[in-house]
Amino acid sequence: MSMEVTAWMSLHHAMNQRDQRPFSKKTLKRIFRFARPHRGLLAWFLAGSVLSAVLTVAAPVLAGRVVDGIVDKRPADLIIGLAVAIGVIAVAEAGLGLVTRYLSARIGEGLIVDLRTSVFDHVQRMPVAFFTRTRTGALVSRLNNDVVGAQQAFSDTLSGIVANTVTLLLTLAVMLTFSWQITLLALVLLPIFVLPARRMGTRLARLEREAADHNAAMSTRMTEKFSAPGATLVKLYGRPAEESAEFAARARRVRDIGIRTAMLQWIFITALTLVGSLALALVYGLGGFYAVRGQLDAGAVVALALLLSRLYAPLTSLASARVEIMSALVSFDRVFEILDLKPMIVDKPDARPLPDGPVAVEVTDVTFGYPAADEVSLASLEDVAKLDSRGGETVLHEVSFRAEPGQLVALVGSSGAGKSTIAQLLPRLYDVGEGAIRLAGQDVRDLTADSIRDALGVVTQDGHLLHDTIRNNLLFARPDATEDELWDALRRGRIADLIASLPDGLDTMVGERGYRLSGGERQRLTIARLLLARPRVVILDEATAHLDSTSEAAVQAALGEALAGRTSVVIAHRLSTIRNADQILVLEGGRIVERGKHPDLLAANGRYAELYRTQFDQPVAA
Which of 173, 301, 454, 519 could form a disulfide with 287 if both were Cys (CB 3.0 to 4.6 A apart)? Predict the structure, then answer.
């Protein structure tokens, strides 16, 4: 290994220092549990690393023997044999390097799969409140950067410590057998080599962190402003010139940091290479002096010079080993933080599926408050120093109602009255605090999540679609649906003609959040998706709240198809859409203040009548 490569390694280790935090024995135990499935590969990997270290030291020793053989004019066969041995060692070292690299990749990538799968599966079980509080970018970073950082603990750091320790001890032992004076000289020069690396590495790391912050800010800005709603907001209210100036300022700062970093790296590497060359000069000078006086063989001088380059690299790596270990442990700790967040909704061990047949929805004395931040989130995922202490306030108070199979129950009331909260409790996105929610007479907490999901279909007011094809958005509800079933659902959702007119038909991309479609088209497509799922209970959360009259008429026709024969709970903003409901519940302050049918509630001249007058600006008439 050349002195220049060794210098680069020193700089790399010094730059990769992260903030350190304490870690516990519990963290180490959990790490070993994740590593246990790979212990066989780990054993072979470590054995290969040790053998590679032995071969690294053997080659310089044999090179010294060759020089001695030439100086002493020994038989050519001996010199050729030594040369062949050096060649065999080189081939063996290269082959062993390939094997250890393969093992390292298998272990590292296997660990990444295990960690990512564990985190991904765990996050999917988290409550909706977790996603409303968490920054998506921070969560993705845990799945990417921190998982990779944890993986490096096994594929790089662990093997590096073992191999470098063996290499260092063997190198020092061999050098001492040749000349203890030159070995001490090499160790005295070590601080001149390592200390500048750590100091310069800290400066470069600080510059890189600043550049990373600027790049992250630019990335966030681009992500926000290049999305469909973000671009619309900028065009309506933004100041393009100021946006461009701020972005350009950050880009120029990243450029300046890049230039400065490149120059500092070049100066540093040049200086350390020079130090290494001077060290070699001292070895050759002192070694040559001893050789001329007959105190040292010429081959020993050459072997010491070659071993010198193999001494600095492991010493530098081991000097930074603690930092690397701490960095890896921090990465593991950040991953375990996610895994330690307890899912609030889990199936009981004896959970049973919802029975077949019609489903009645029963809400009995339900009292509920959303979970506090510390129950569902982490400060680091919200990018705050301390979690919001608010939360847990009661938003529903002793709410009770029943929707018989095939009936339509409508929920109306002011914003914040608790309507959408009820819509989230029915499919068990949250568990009630007090009381119970039953489907077909079964408490939802006693049912399997899969059977609840199969029985209930939900259409929200934003009609959310994935950035995928129309076909895949439909199949998300029922992956085994046939082509005929897809088109049947689209016809019943009153959108088949539009899809058929598109050049790519079902394979048309809908764009991010479905923004290539109009609001009414998105809603009809989500209704078609619901029809394809064939739920027994339908929940509509203000599905027509933001549509114009034409779109609303088309969506209402599709909803009529979706609600026919099904138990339905409908949150209505436009009261005209729920006149024929079997029961209308009026919520205020998390309580049901009125219930009945449309004519009866108008005749009662209470809160419902007040909402009706406000919306239609006309006298109450039954």
Answer: 301
